[in-house]
Structure formats: C-alpha cells, structure tokens
Amino acid sequence: MLREELLEILEKDSRIPVQEMAIMLGKPAADIENEMKAMEQEKVICGYHTMINWDKTNQERVTALIEVKVVPQRDEGFDKIARRIYEFEEVSSVFLMSGPFDLMVIVEGHTMKEVALFVRERLAVLENVNGTATCFVLKKYKDNGIFMESRKKDERMIVSL
Amino acid sequence: MKNYLNPVICDIKPSGIRRFFDIAAEMDDVISLGVGEPDFDTPWSIRETAIYTLEQGKTVYTANAGLKELRQEISKYVYRKYHLTYDPIHQILVTVGGSEAIDLALRAMIVPGDEVLIPEPSYVSYIPCVIMAGGVPVNIPLTSENSFKLMAEDIEKHITDKTKAIVFPFPNNPTGSIMTLEDLQPVAEVIRKHDLFVISDEIYAELSYGDKPHVSIASLPDMAERTLVINGFSKAFSMTGWRLGYAMGPEELVRQMIKIHQFAIMCAPTTSQYAAVEALRNCDAKVDAMRREYNRRRRYVLSRLQAMGLTCFEPEGAFYVFPSIQSLHMTSEEFCSSLLYDQKVAVVPGDAFGEHGEGFVRISYAYSMEELKTALDRIEKFVQGL
User: Fold this and answer.
1) What is the CATH number of the domain that holds B154?
2) Which residue of B has its CA nearest to A19?
3) Of the candidates B282, B289, B276, B145, which has an alpha carbon nearest to the alpha carbon of residue B207?
4) Is B1 among the domain residues?
5) Among A9, A23, A160, whose Cβ lies nearest the Cβ of B37?
6) Strand-pair partners of B361
7) Can you tell me the distance from the alpha carbon of B247 to that of B200, in angstroms, rounded to the nearest whole number?
8) Which of A1, A159, A160 best tests the B interface by mutation, with the highest count of B CBs <10 A?
C-alpha cells in the first residue's frame, strides 16, 4: 500500500520533500527513501519531469500525433521498427496500438514545417512503414491529468460550521 | 401592532461568533481554515449525470420519500458499507441534507418537556432543533482526556425520567473524534437499559481514518429498532450544495417523518436525487481517493500543530483537528480574533460548538496542501510571537 500511495502523491507532485511525505503517510522517512529508490531501480518510477505549458512561453512548440501503419517482421514483431522510430530525438512517445493502425508516434517540434519535414524525410520513408497520418494538436485542454487553464476560485464561504 | 413573533424562536441565540465571521469575510488576503465543507469538486460523473437528467427534462417532483431507485441504492450502499439492513420502501427517507433529517426526527418524537441528550462540543444545529421541537436539550460534556468520545457513565449521569433520546454525532464535528466498536458497546448497553432512542448523525461516516471502517451504532445488537441513522452526500461525495441527505430507521418513525417532510418540503431536489444514484453506484474509488488525500493532510496538520507545542489529540474522523490553546492563556475567541488580525488566518473558536469547546479551536483541513502550508506557517508565526 505504501508504494501505491507514494505513487499517488508523486504522480501529482514529485517535489514534495521526503520528510513531508513521511509525515503525510505516517511512516519513517527512511522507508519512503528506500521505497523510492527501489521503484527507481525497478523502473516503476521512470523520471521526475516538469509539466510545461509551452503556449505560455515565447517558444514555439507544436505537437503531432502520427498514426503509423507498419509491416511487422518475423521474429521481431513490431519491436524492431518501433525502435527505428523511437530512437529519433524528435519523437517523444511511441505506443503500439490496437485498432486501424499500428504505432502512435508523438512528435514534438518547433514548427509544423519541422514536423512535416521529419515525417516526410525520416518516418514515411522507412522500410516497413506502409503509411502515416499526421494530426497536429491545436489546443491542449488537459494533459497528464492537469488542466491547462487555471481553475475557478474557491467559492466557499470563509467560515461554515 | 401586537408582537406577532414566537418568543421561543426569538430566544434562540444566533451563532455568537457571526460578527467575527463577518469581519473575516470583509478582510483581504485572509486564508481560511474555517470551512466545514469539502474542497473537492463533486466528481464529474455525478455532475454529468445531473446535466443529462436536466437535458432529458427530468424536472418533476419525486415521491415524497425520494426516488425509489435512489432509496434502493441507499439500501444496498449502507449494507455494503456498514452492514445496515433497511427496507427501501418503508424505512428510508431522502431529505434536504442531513440537517432536515435531524429536524424531522426531533419533531416526530418530541413532546413538550422531553429531554434530549446532546454531547458537546458538537454541530450547532442540534440544540436549536430540540428547542424548536419543544424539547429540552441536555448537554453531555465531552473531554479531551477521553479523546472527546462519549462515555457510558457520562450518559447515565444525565438521564432523568424525562430523557427520551440522545443525539449521537460521530465522527464528530468539530473534534474529529470517532467511536469504535469497542467504544460503542458500553454506550449501547446504557441506551438499551434506559430505553432511549438514538439519533445517530453519521454524515462524516466515510471520512474515518483508523484501521477499521466506520461502525454505526445501529449495527449493534437490538439497536436498529431504537436508532435513526442520518447520513448524506455532502461530505462523502463532496456534494454540499446539492442539499441531499437521508434518514433510515424504524418504519413507524420514518412514516411520521415522511408526513412532516411531505407537508413542509414535498420532496428533495429531483436533479440531486438522480445525481446521487450515480454517486452510490459508481463513485467508491473517488471517495476512497478523497479519503486518502484527507488522511495525508490530517497527519500533516496534526504534526505541524504538535511541533508548535499545541496539545492536540489525534482526530480519526471528519476533516477537522481540534487543538487546545489553553497553554496560551487566552480564550478561544481571543485566539481566533488575534490570529485573524495578526496573520489573517481564520479558524473557528471551539466555543462556537458549545461552552465545552472553550479552550480549543477547530481547524479544517478541507484545503489543498499548499493552502494548509501557508496557513500553518502563519499560525506558527503567531503562536511563536505570543
């Protein structure tokens, strides 16, 4: 249970000091530290990233979701071709999917032109890639469980009994 | 013109700290830890269900006792959660919040002069409701030495031949105290022995943080026949504004309560009732997640208060901590107004919940960790500056 509850906390905020989590969970700090280390080693925890709303910065950023149809290979299945794709730095996520296409490739670029170039020159031309459909993200409403717009104010009365 | 007002109502004091709240509401940058309602939004599936039924035009009265579908779900829910068995047709009434159920129960039972035992400190509406029903409220002081639990001998001390019923408010607002099965057994024995009726306000039942889930006093042997259980959606499902509660008890009592409800209220809000069906069917996981979050905040707030040197027993229910401020040599109200003026933090003086709450303050943790931290930093600064 400690593991599940730690993950519940960390998934929302990975910057809470160990000491504070120990208090919140009623466990010694050493236990929290050990559990976090164990999860890091087991790759249960794969990183502590920062959610950034790039729209609020001066940096141009575009995200594209690219549906990719591929030919699976003998002995290798989809893994080999997936690797050919996910090794590109431009690619932030690759998922093997059920449904009408095989791989969902998420690409982040500075401009649409840059992403288009990547698809045309790198992705579509790969052997065993049968086809691609590129969908650009127009607006992010919610990402990784976070609302991108700030939410309403606390409207509760200041005191109620 | 003749004085046309009812002296019984005129004599009921409005909450004595109203003035203090009004000041707090006018100040800028006040951080309040004074709220008695959850900070979470109602889970979206519940809200979405309400929207859908509105779109479908389900906007007419329901049966007086509430939608049959909802009463059936309540019956299943309380069996699943607390092993309580109630017939949805004859023993369950859907009310406008738990508050209405308290009022109905007292009005259905009290004849002038009947005494009703009320543990104190506790929620502010019991005493006025008893008075408005023509009864006589008799306070039973709860003490921090007993972790604000109700002791069998304290009940016995206050019983007279006029005692009819006892209000049983656990998990408790404002103390956060709970009654475990072991705590309940001797109490139930006294209640059976003296043939008392119990009005058990279990609105905070889902917010219990011990190893074991909440135990209803009605689940003890031979208690269901002499207990009215009151619960609702406000705290567990974060649905305060929907105004929806329910009462469950012996058929003969529920029948009389339905009569008052029928003539005074007609029925609880229809939209809320449909939404509540969704809450009971599909929201256990969301309630569990809220409870875990409250529990983390509870431990955090308690540890911060103790680190400041304030004596505080560990509350195991609701979303309040109730630290003692006696070591600071000020009254609860002095503490609260100084804290408000000095550090702009609003908490509730314990005496708002009856004179036996004096010497304590109620701090709510129905706030985000961020808000709790800021507020507790300010309280710490205040306490250290004294």
Assistant:
1) 3.40.640.10
2) B300
3) B289
4) no
5) A160
6) B349
7) 10
8) A159
Tens of pLDDT, residue by residue over B54-80, are 999 999 999 999 999 999 999 999 999
Q: B72 and B165: one domain?
A: yes
Residue B243 lies in a domain: yes
Distance CA B340, CA B289 (A): 32
**Rg of chain B (C-alpha set):** 21
Question: Which residues, listed in sequence order, are joined to residue B117 by a DSSP beta bridge?
Answer: B138, B166
Q: How far is CA A75 from the centre of its chain?
A: 29
Structural domain of residue B355, as residue ranges?
Answer: 7-42+285-384
DSSP state of B57: T
Measured between alpha carbons, how far is B337 from B342 in angstroms, rounded to an integer?
8
A9 to chain B, any CB pair closer than 8 A? The answer is: yes
Any idea which fold A54-143 has? Answer: Alpha-Beta Plaits (3.30.70)
Whole-number Å distance between alpha carbons of B279 and B317: 21
Question: Residue ranges per domain, chain A?
Answer: 2-41, 54-143
- DSSP letter for B239, please: -
- Chain B positions touching A1 (Cβ under 8 A) are none
Are residues B299 and A156, on separate chains, in Cβ contact within 8 Å?
no
- Does B30 sit within 8 Å of A161, measured CB to CB? no
Distance CA B308, CA B301 (A): 11
Q: Is A100 in the B-facing interface, judged by CB distances under 8 Å?
A: no
ipTM summary value: 0.84
Measured CA to CA, the distance from residue B98 to residue B199 in angstroms comes to: 11
Domain boundary pick from B239, B261, B282: B282
Residues B65 and B175 in one domain: yes
CATH topology of domain A2-41: Arc Repressor Mutant, subunit A (1.10.10)
Could you tell me if A23 lies within 8 Å of chain B, comparing CB atoms? yes
pLDDT digits (tens, 9 = 90+) for B113-140: 999 999 999 999 999 999 999 999 999 9
What does the DSSP assignment read for B129-169? HHHHTT-EEEEEE--GGGTTPPPHHHHHHH--TTEEEEEE-
- Cβ of A159 within 8 Å of Cβ of B21? The answer is yes
* pLDDT profile of chain A (161 residues), mean per 10: 93 94 96 97 95 89 96 90 95 96 96 95 94 95 85 84 84
**Which chain B positions have a beta carbon within 8 Å of A147's beta carbon?**
none
Among A20, A23, A161, select the one facing B36 at the smallest CB separation. Answer: A161
Q: What is the total count of domains within chain B? A: 2
- Tokens linked to B335: 């503490």
CA distance B171 to chain A (A): 15
Indicate if the alpha-carbon torsion angle A32, A36, A39, A44 is positive or negative. positive
DSSP classification of residue A106: E
- Cα separation, B6 vs B128, in Å, equals 14
pTM above 0.95, yes or no: no
Contact check, Cβ <8 Å, A5/B292 = yes
Query: Which residue type is seen at B55?
Result: E
